[in-house]
Amino acid sequence: MLCLAGLASPVWAQTAELPAASPDVVAPLAVAADSSNNARDAAKPATAGIREKAAEAATATLAALLPRLAATDTLPLLDRSTMVAGDLSRLLSSYSQAREGTVVMEGEGGKIQAVLKRALTLMGTPYRWGGTSPDSGFDCSGLVGYVFRTALGIELPRVSRDMASQADGQLIAKREDLKQGDLVFFGRKGRINHVGIYVGEGRFLHSPSTGNDVRVDSLTSGYWAPRFMQARRIAM
Predict the structure, then answer these.
(1) Is-catalytic flag, 94?
(2) CB neighbour list of residue 102: distance below 8 Å, 6 or more residues apart
(3) Is 73 exposed, middle or buried (0-12, 13-18, 19+ CB in 10 A)?
(4) Please, are residues 213 and 147 in contact by the beta-carbon 8 Å criterion?
(5) Of these residues, 140, 143, 164, 183, which one is catalytic?
(6) Which residues form the NlpC/P60 domain (predicted)?
(7) Most CB contacts within 10 A, which of 60, 183, 201, 233?
């Protein structure tokens, strides 16, 4: 009788013993791997910070330039280009270069930037009486309410006259005191009937009337200038 236990194992079943790696080789490799992982992990927050600052800067640029490029602007192209160049110059002068190499905007809050960014993306949406969404269209207060609700989670009263009288909003009586993100109110004979969002440079974004789209208009000249009544700064 054959005793299988005494036979040599086949080649395919044999396991070759590899020489143990030298500690002098393994240790430096482990340190190098740890250093690489640590550097990669440390770079993630920095990259995220740069992206956030870049997004803020892009939004601020849009807020400054879109009023000049609005469809209602009747200036000749050359004059409009000159004004855009001036906007860019003033915008760049308000930036500072941080030590870590990221571009930061001085004096602008992230929440205000979120409001402006949301509002500007809605330009071109048709007016619709009673509308409260991009799909249905907006009336003036529906637009403002949608922007603050979706950008910051802030619920505002449904109609403009109630927005103008809400107690938790700071009353702004003078145009020269306006800041980006303020709600601006218009009306006749002491009765408020329209609202928009101030975007800076004497302009505001709103949904004007039937047959028109969400757009940027002048607060200091034209149809809306004499109808301005007050503004409110929403607590953010």
Answers:
(1) no
(2) 49, 50, 53, 54
(3) middle
(4) no
(5) 140
(6) 109-235
(7) 183
From the list 194, 203, 215, 232, the catalytic residue is 194
| 206 is known as an active-site residue | yes
Asked if 3 is an active-site residue, the reply is: no
Distance CA(184)–CA(169), nearest Å, equals: 12
Strand partners, 39: none
Look at residue 219 and tell me whether its pLDDT is greater than 50. Answer: yes
Q: Which helix (H) or strand (E) holds 36?
A: helix 23-69
CATH superfamily of 110-234: endopeptidase domain like (from Nostoc punctiforme) (3.90.1720.10)
Task: For residue range 16-42, list pLDDT tens digits in order.
Answer: 444 444 445 444 444 444 555 554 555
Q: Are strands 203-206 and 228-234 parallel, antiparallel or unpaired?
A: unpaired
